[in-house]
Amino acid sequence: xxxxxxxxxxxxxxxxxxxxxxxxxxxxxxxxxxxxxxxxxxxxxxxxxxxxxxxxxxxxxxxxxxxxxxxxxxxxxxxxxxxxxxxxxxxxxxxxxxxxxxxxxxxxxxxxxxxxxxxxxxxxxxxxxxxxxxxxxxxxxxxxxxxxxxxxxxxxxxxxxxxxxxxxxxxxxxxxxxxxxxxxxxxxxxxxxxxxxx
Length: 198
Known about the structure:
This protein is of the alpha/beta class. Helices cover 37% and strands 26% of the residues.
């Protein structure tokens, strides 16, 4: 039986907690300025609504994200490495070739670059991602049909012993996830500027 989850919804005028994703989705869909996040207890959900952030888990965690903007054929990617709640490294850039699957190219590149960094620095970590395919393709739960998925699976296969995966909800106010999202967007802007110069 699946564990009970609580969904906290934060609006400028106040917050509320619901106990089903279906209800949460109905309340937040299409609304601007609304943040929402799932929790395993009502107490944690209430704390988040009251502005109390949960303590960052111990160990090494790497937040990854990709970005794509119309008018630029490249995807941006970024990762931020956190150890015991403090940033120790970051990386960002854009894909060398035109993105085949828009931001998914960036998501895959971010995860791969993060794993390379972990390998070079002899560290083990939890990869925190908001695109589900990052973990599903790597663990063989999804069939890698697209060219980018196949490249990703082949590239990360020798590095998987270094990581576990954890899905985080996008645009819900998670500090490190918001940071890595903005770094990936900056990378796409840089790609656009360099394209305009040439």
